[in-house]
């Protein structure tokens, strides 16, 4: 049901384009690739496409923008969110930013295939920036085409929403649209280019500012513009900190550290591996941003990275994400140093990241295990031996924690009965040797004893665990199956996954198939276990 206050025409959206109004634009209006100096963005229009086809809309995101159902189903919606028409009040631009890629300063990067449409103020007074990904080249496209393929767009669309419903801070996705045009990609950079279907995702977030937006200005030795962007960001996105001042800059950086730590704790909780944690892919708001070659841990392997481009060093592997976030925050501290001219307050704030992360991680593990609170004296050992056991044999992380919640802390059971619910989580039964089972049983007995100290009723404990251990995540092979079908013109699996992943913590018998272990065929299939940056 649409309430009368819903917007029925996109020209009625209330735009307040603060970013372009308050920050300097690149004076060159042309859409040529170049180094941009002394500016935070370049005005650039999306490139029109031939025959756009709407594939999916996330209704919760449409609700954030107060858009009516009819509007979301209209041709005008498709035309606007593929980039064929600018609605009234839109003012399109690409942001200038730099970044460290795989630990090396890469200079200017910028929105090479993202075009911002403007900032909507919704009826609750919230600010939501809209951004098309894959809508054509910009001055920051370097040697690439500014386009995106259906494969990567389905992945971004579904994962943004899956993460939101899991409770992980993230940018959102309003829509997924086919352009009706082809895009050539060499998926594994191995000399096998292929024409793929082009697509555009409209992303939505309070702001798309990244660490790299600040880094580029310091690299260009432009402290005045750095201050302007920092002041703008504090006033717009961190208004609770008060008017910018040296103390407020430090408080702001400390908050970025805190938000980033919280985001990484969530990633570790749900088994998400970003895959490309370059500083240009780090949001100043602590949101998960830029869904590229990300993946989900299926079997718990702390060394796993989905990104084939990173298969040598594995810089961005699951277990390394907390340290990488710290390193990236260090680069942000370097970038904003000219605001203060002294290092110790920033160093102190940076050091607090480790505390935030540790505390957050401990609380998260206590929640996952159904404990009332983390007690280092007992729980350090409990957690480290559990994680060691999970990694030792191929264990499905998601299924394991869900099944663990089934155990009773108050009924005496045989070894067999104790282990039985967990057997579902193992990929290779032959790895469950007598020795392994003995270690697991020992751990389970210790765990039950620990639960008994808390004295929670089994039902209460189970409900608490199931509220933080999802039943459904966007398993890599599920996204790939949805892509395979979409490439054949069947979008039904995209819709089913979007629907199922709205309630990741609930039992949904109709979607039981999406909670199953990765099938064997997906073990080595590109797109399921191996992804590249090509998208
Ligand atoms: P990523 O590592 O995917 O976040 O991208 C790094 C940089 O490359 C960013 O500046 C992107 O905008 C840019 N980029 C990635 N893919 C493309 C593309 N197809 N066309 C233009 N720029 C791109
Ligand atoms: Mg990026």
Report on the architecture of this protein.
With 535 residues, the protein is α+β, with helices and mostly antiparallel strands. The chain has 4 domains: 10-208, no CATH class; 212-367, no CATH class; 371-455, no CATH class; 476-522, no CATH class. Helices cover 40% and strands 12% of the residues. The chain has 17 helices and 11 strands. The chain has helices spanning 18-22, 59-64, 69-72, 75-82, 150-166, 211-219, 223-237, 246-270, 321-340, 344-369, 376-392, 397-404, 415-419, 434-454, 458-466, 476-487, 492-500; strands at residues 41-43, 53-57, 93-95, 98-101, 104-108, 114-121, 127-133, 172-185, 194-205, 272-273, 295-296. The strands form 4 sheets. The protein has a 5-stranded antiparallel sheet. It has a two-stranded antiparallel ribbon with strand order 1-3. Helix 8 packs parallel to helix 10 and helix 11 (376-392) runs antiparallel to helix 14. It starts with 17 loop residues before the first helix and ends in a 35-residue tail after the last helix. The mean pLDDT is 97. The structure holds adenosine monophosphate and magnesium ion (MG). Adenosine monophosphate binds next to loops.
């Amino acid at each position: 049901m649409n309430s009368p206050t819903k917007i029925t025409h996109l020209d009625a959206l209330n735009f307040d384009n603060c970013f372009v109004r308050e920050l300097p634009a690149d004076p060159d209006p042309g859409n040529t690739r170049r180094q941009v100096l002394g500016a935070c963005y370049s005005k650039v229009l999306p490139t029109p496409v031939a025959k756009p086809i709407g594939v999916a809309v996330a209704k919760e995101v449409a609700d954030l923008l107060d858009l009516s159902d009819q509007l979301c189903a209209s041709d005008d919606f498709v035309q606007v969110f593929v980039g064929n028409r600018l609605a009234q009040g839109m003012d399109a631009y690409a942001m200038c930013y730099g970044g460290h890629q795989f630990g090396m300063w890469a200079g200017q990067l910028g929105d090479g295939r993202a075009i911002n449409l403007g900032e909507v103020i919704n009826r609750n007074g919230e600010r939501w920036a809209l951004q098309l990904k894959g809508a054509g080249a910009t001055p920051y496209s370097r040697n690439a085409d500014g386009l995106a393929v259906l494969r990567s767009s389905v992945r971004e669309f579904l994962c943004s929403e899956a993460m939101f419903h899991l409770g992980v801070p993230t940018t959102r996705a309003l829509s997924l649209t086919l352009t009706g045009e082809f895009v050539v990609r060499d998926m594994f950079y191995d000399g096998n280019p292929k024409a793929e279907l082009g697509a555009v995702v409209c992303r939505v977030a309070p702001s798309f500012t990244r660490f790299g937006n600040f880094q580029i200005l310091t690299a260009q030795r432009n402290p005045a513009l750095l201050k302007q962007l920092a002041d703008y960001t504090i006033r717009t996105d961190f208004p609770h900190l008060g008017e910018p001042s040296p103390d407020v800059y430090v408080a702001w950086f400390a908050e970025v550290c805190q938000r980033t730590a919280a985001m990484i704790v969530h990633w570790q909780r749900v088994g998400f591996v970003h895959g490309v944690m370059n500083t240009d892919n780090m949001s100043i708001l602590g949101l998960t941003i830029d869904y590229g070659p990300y993946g989900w841990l299926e079997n718990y392997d702390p060394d796993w990275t989905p990104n084939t481009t990173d298969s040598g060093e594995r810089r961005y592997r699951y277990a390394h994400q907390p340290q990488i976030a710290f390193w990236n925050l260090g680069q942000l501290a370097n970038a904003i140093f000219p605001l203060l001219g002294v290092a110790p307050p920033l160093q102190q704030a940076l050091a607090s990241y480790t505390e935030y992360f540790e505390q957050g991680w401990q609380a998260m593990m206590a929640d996952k295990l159904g404990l009332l609170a983390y007690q280092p004296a007992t729980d350090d050992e409990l957690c480290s031996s559990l994680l060691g056991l999970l990694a030792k044999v191929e264990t499905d992380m998601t299924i394991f924690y869900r099944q663990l919640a089934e155990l009773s802390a108050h009924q005496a059971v045989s070894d067999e009965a104790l282990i039985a619910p967990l057997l579902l989580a193992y990929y290779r039964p032959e790895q469950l040797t007598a020795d392994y089972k003995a270690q697991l049983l020992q751990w389970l007995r210790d765990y039950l004893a620990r639960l008994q100290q808390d004295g929670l009723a089994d039902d209460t404990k189970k409900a608490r665990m199931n509220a933080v251990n999802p039943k459904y995540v966007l398993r890599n092979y599920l996204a790939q199956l949805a892509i395979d079908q979409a490439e054949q013109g069947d979008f039904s699996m995209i819709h089913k996954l979007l629907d199922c992943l709205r309630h990741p913590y609930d039992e949904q018998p109709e979607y039981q198939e999406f909670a199953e272990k990765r099938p064997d065929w997906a073990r080595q299939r590109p797109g399921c276990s191996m992804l590249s940056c090509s998208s």
